[in-house]
Each structure stands twice: as structure tokens, then as C-alpha cells.
Amino acid sequence: MTTTLSPPPATGRPERGGFGRVLHAEWTKFRTVRGWVLGTVGALVVTCLVGLLATAQSNEGGLKASKLPVGPSGEAVNDAFYFLRQPLKGDGSITVSVSSLTGRVASTPTGNRPGLAPWAKAGIIVKDSLEPGSSYAAMMVTAAHGVRMQYDYTHDTAGLPGAVSAKAPRWLRLERSGDTVTGYQSTDGSTWSEAGTARLSGLSESPQVGLFVTSPSATVETGTGTGFNPAVATGTFGAPALSGGWSGNAWQDRQVGGGPGTSGSYSQSTKGEAIRSGTGYRITGAGDIAPVVGGPAAGGVRILSNFLVGAFAGLIMMVVVATSCMTVEYRRGLIGVTFAASPGRGRVLVCKALVVGCAAFLAGTLAAAVMLPLGAARSLANGFPVLTVPPSTELRAVVGTGLLLAAAGVFALALGAILRRSAVTITAVVVGMVLPYLLATASVLPPAASDWLLKVTPAAGFAIQQTVTHYDQVVTVYSPAHGYFPLAPWEGLAVLCAYAATAFAGALVLIRRRDA
């Protein structure tokens, strides 16, 4: 009887230099080098310290509001206007003509001149309540942007163009049906076109409906840039035509919001008013119904990205750490040992990038998560209102700060593999990324040059931290110095990632071709 013996099955011994083993080796190397660990912790700490220094100023004698009104989506808003209203019980509509919109702009501390802010508004509005920040839909004429339908602060739809006058009046109509409000417009009161529709979720059974007027500040060019002078507007309305479930009560007028003096109105002493004019009304008001966007038009108000200003300092520290992770091995002759232990050179570089990127991401994310609530609390305690934003925007700023440091770290690591010199690599990253950011945000360059730098250099990545939005219907100075970047948040980060990916690809090619 013959017995055939089969060889024992393979034990599945891990391949020498497998990805998991290389990754573990690089992580062990990183955490056992005290300087790299301390540098990563230092990046977190310095980001917070610089951010805290930016919130140290006190606003004694300034605006002491503990909180700005918050709109339905969670953004800080202006909600100040003069209102002639009565409750609408259930469904119904209001129709009115507007035959003029005039105003005055403060030109000296004691005088004023005729004029209008481009976004001065007069029209009709359905307001969930008189509480600032409550939901609304409005049809309006504006000083320079024609008829508009706006609702819930951030939504703006263009209607008929042209300025209103006695020879060219505009008729406006709002129809409420449940939670839906539809706006209509006309040039003659007979032929109507739909301007837009708004769905106001949870609109109360008896919202306040009527005529309103408001005006933000008017811009003025000064020797040092764009300034903002308080302004007031007056609208002339025909007799309102009502249908549906109106209460039949007399019209009542009042100032909604903080009153004149809030968010760009004419002055503390200017009183809004509604007076009879023939069969209609003349209404005067100031303020605005719009998102608060920061900038010089909202002096004394801080935005959340102000508290993340220390990220550039933390980024520099992470660049030093990431560069050292590569160049130290070349300088000390250890790179040959690393490649001998792990012959897959590309695999080594990928693992180093993963370790450095994760460490930088953790440092940046934790620093931002600490600084946003801490900076807001310190600012409020020092008398500075803080612009709230939707939770999704806040989360993006926190995670984005981590991604910013991670991408910069990988960029520096790849350049370190290419250049093999710490000082040269660190200088290249700082000059290419941090310097353009500082020049742009410090307003030392013309606006066009600042925008160009933040579009084409790795500094574009800082856009991921912006927490304010550019709205066409809100006039301010939209510049990096006030938290605005020329690219959208994720677009800016994509530019930085493109630089990092290009450098990384070049490093992969070179380390395979060059001697260790």
C-alpha cells in the first residue's frame, strides 16, 4: 500500500514590507520621535493661543447685544423695519400700489442729503410674528434693483426692473394659502405676473400682514476705502386692497426689531412713522431685513472665522513637522535603511503621508472645535455680538480646519521628498501658502491682487474656514480682510489639494528614480 504525502498548506506569512506593516512602522516612528509629537501638540496649542489673542479686545461703550436675531435657517439676521399691519386670519391676499420711494442719507454728523441706499425697500410683507428673526415673505420695490420677492432673509428673486415713480408705479400682491405665499407684480394693476413662491414652514394661523419700509446704510467712497452712512427711506402707497380672512381691525403701526439705529439705519433719533396720504399712506423707516454678513457695514460684530485666525500659525508648525518626517531621514542617512526594510518606496511615502495627514487633521480639528465656542463666549463677554451660522457651516469650518492642516502637511512632506532640505522646503511652503494669506487678509495689497493670490496659490485652501456668505442683496465690503474669499470653501480647498497631489506625484516618481 502506497501513501502519498501532500505538502503542508501555506501559513499565510505576511509579506515582508506589506502596507499594514509599513504603516505601523511609520506610525511607531512618528510617535516615538518626541519633537514630532510635541510639534503636533504645539500646532493645536498655538492655533488656540493666537485665536484667543484675537478675541482679547474689549468693546467698552460699544454694542452690547448678547445675541443677534437668528433666522429660520440659523443665520444671524437684521430684522428692523417700520410696519403698518393687521393680522390675517387664515388665507387671504393684500394688494397695494407704490408710487414713490425717496430718502435721505447722513452726510455729516448734523446734516443729511437727499438720496437712497440701493437696497432701500418699500412693499408688503407676510410676517409670522413681530419677533425679530421670524419667518416672512415680502414683495417690494427697491431703490436700484427693481421689484423683488424676498423671503426668510436669504432668498431673493428679481422681478420687474426699473425705479418706481408717480409716472411708473408698481402694483404688488401677496396671496397666502396655508404655508405657501405667492408674490405677484404689475405695472398697471390689471395685468399681473407671478414673481415667486415661498413656502414658510409652520406659518402661524394669524400672521401679521401689511406695508413696510426699511433702508440699510448707503455706501460712500472715502480716502481709505468704502464707508457706510446711515440712511432712511420713505415710500408712498395707495390704499391697500384686502381679500380673505382679515380681522377688520384698524391698521396699527410700529417699529419691528431694534428700532432706528440698528444695523445701518439713519440715527437713534430718527423715528419711523406711517401717516395718511390721501387714501393711502406715506411710511418712513430704516434698518434692513436681510442676513448679517459682517464687514464694515456691521461694525463691532464678529464672525466665527475670526476665532480660527490662529490656523496659519498652527499650519506653520505642522509644515515643520511634516517636512522633518522626510528630510531628517535623508540628512541622517536613515532613508536607505527605511527603503531596505520596505523596498516599496512609493508605499513608504504613502504611509508617511497618512500618518502626517491624520496627525495634522486631528490637531486642526480639535483646535477649531475648541476655539469656535470659546472665541464666541469671550467675544460676547467683551461686548461683541457674534454672527451665528447654521450648524452645517460651523461643522464644515471645524472639519475644514483639520483638512487644511492635513493637506498642507502632505504638501510639505512631498516637497521634502523632492527637495531633501528642511529649510528650503519650509521656506517654499510658507512663501507659497502662508505669505499670500497674510498679505491678502491684512489688506496690504489691492483687492484684485489679493483675490488673484487666493485663487491660484495654495493659500486658496484657507477658504474652507470662511463662515460668511456673499449675498447680492446685502451691500458690504466682500474682501479676505472681512472673512470673504474669492473661491467657495470646497473650491479653495481643492486648489490646495491639487498642489499637494501634484507635489506628491512628483515625489513618487523621484524617490523611485533617485538613489536613497
Number of helices: 9
Give the class from helix and strand content and strand pairing: alpha+beta
**Helix and strand element order:** HHEEEEEEEEEEEEEEEEEEHHHHHHH
Number of domains: 2
Number of E-type strands: 18
Mean of residue pLDDT values: 87
Give the low-confidence spans: 1-6, 10-15, 61-65, 259-269
Oligomer category: single chain
Textual characterization of the structure:
The structure is a single chain. The longest helix has 37 residues, at 345-381. The protein is elongated. Helix 2 runs parallel beside helix 5 (345-381), helix 5 (345-381) crosses helix 6 (391-419) and helix 6 (391-419) runs antiparallel to helix 7. It folds into 2 domains: 19-57 and 301-513; 77-291, Jelly Rolls (Sandwich), CATH 2.60.120. The protein starts with 18 loop residues before the first helix and ends with a helix. The chain has 9 helices and 18 strands. By secondary structure, it is an alpha+beta fold. The strands form 2 sheets. It has a 16-stranded antiparallel β-sheet that branches. It has helices at residues 19-32, 34-54, 311-331, 335-341, 345-381, 391-419, 422-441, 447-456, 489-513, and strands at residues 77-106, 112-114, 121-127, 136-142, 147-151, 155-158, 170-177, 180-186, 193-199, 208-214, 218-222, 225-229, 231-237, 241-246, 252-256, 273-277, 280-285, 288-291. Strand 3 (121-127) and strand 4 form a beta hairpin.
